[in-house]
Amino acid sequence: MNCNVLFILLSLAASTGWAQSAPPAPVVVDEARMDTFSAALWVSGTVISQHDARIAAETDGRITWVAEVGTRIGNGEPFAIIDDTDLQLDLRDNQARLESLQAQKRYQENNLKRLNQLAASNNASVNQRDEAQSQMDMTVQEIRRAEVTIARTQRRIDQTRVLAPFPGVVVERLVQVGEFVSRGMQVARLVDTENREIRAQAPLGVASFIREGLEVSVKHEGRQSLSPVTRVIPVGDERSRMFEVRIAADDPAWLIGSPVRVALPNSNPRELVAIPRDALVLRGSEMFVLRVTADNTVEKISVDTGIGLGKLIEVIGDVFDGDRIVTRGAERLQPGQLVVISGGT
Minimal CA–CA distance to 264: which of 242, 291, 279, 245? Predict the structure, then answer.
């Protein structure tokens, strides 16, 4: 048979409804949806701890113990200990001096009392009483200074136990047992692994579209979820023209240091119709979707695309909220062909 004749017969068959005599083609559909969306810009982010510090010693001395890497430390618990032998000796010396001053004060009080009694019978001069009073006042001040010295020494003894300012895990030992440390020298790195967040850098151009509490999409190892923006740092870097955004990181699978991708809005929100990207059919220069009608036949709708919304994409054309759009099985369908829905909506 001539090829031209065969083409004409097939065309007549399609135009007269012969294609509907074929069994229904199985398809998967999804509904077009209208919602308020913003265009998204994907930026890189990193999961960080809200508390990550290299804790330093507050006094001098020799390290006698440091917690092993991986040890979980509670808030206020020690993770390193410094030898306090010399400080304990200083404390005993200070206490002895205080006791000596207190004994001296008791003597001076009794002496002043006797002088006052003698002065009452004109047997002691005013100068003697004033001198005794002055000596006792100076002793009182020396006692106060001794008490301050004892308190300072006791505080240094307390500081020989390097305490955790927050609960966390020791991830790095910066000194070893036996090493001598000075005040201000770093002892260990402590990281709070429970309280985490995502730090992302965003272009200054999107700053007006981001606010605290805004839900944004976060991708990590192929999984996508929503997390709120917790803080926006409104200061940009003059070189990179970027500013910092902090996002909640509640998923326990996100280890500190993990790289993530964050979708930040870069336009004002507006109402639009979106469909799954899989629903788009490209044939040559033509782009269209296939909509399933009420009688389960398909009709061809030419569309243009707008902003991408993750797995969805905006469509501009004769597509409305709730339309059933073919997402799988559209490659061989013809307009007017009968279909059977085997999955989706």
Answer: 245
Q: What is the DSSP string of 167-194?
A: -EEEEEE-S-TT-EE-TT-EEEEEE-SS
Q: Which residue has the tokens 């001053």?
A: 101
Residue 161, both tokens: 């136990």
Tokens representing 156?
């240094």
Rounded-to-integer distance, Cα 269 and Cα 314, Å? 13
Question: What average pLDDT does this structure show over 194-205?
Answer: 94
User: In the predicted model, what is the mean pLDDT of residues 88-105?
Assistant: 95
Record the tokens describing residue 97, joined without a space. Answer: 């001096």
Beta strands in 174-309 (DSSP E): 180-181, 186-191, 196-203, 215-220, 223-236, 242-248, 259-265, 270-276, 281-283, 286-292, 298-309
Q: How many Å apart are CA 310 and CA 39, to the nearest integer?
A: 10
CB 163 within 8 A of CB 78: yes
Helix 126-159 with 85-120: angle, nearest 10 deg: 160
Tens of pLDDT along 294-319? 999 999 999 998 877 768 888 999 99
Q: Is 16 within 8 Å of 167 (Cβ atoms)?
A: no
pLDDT band for 38, please (50, 70, 90 cuts): confident
> What single-letter DSSP state applies at residue 211?
-
Predicted confidence (pLDDT) per residue in 221-248, tens digit:
888 888 999 999 999 999 999 999 999 9
What would the two tokens of residue 127 be? 């100068």
How long is the chain? Answer: 345
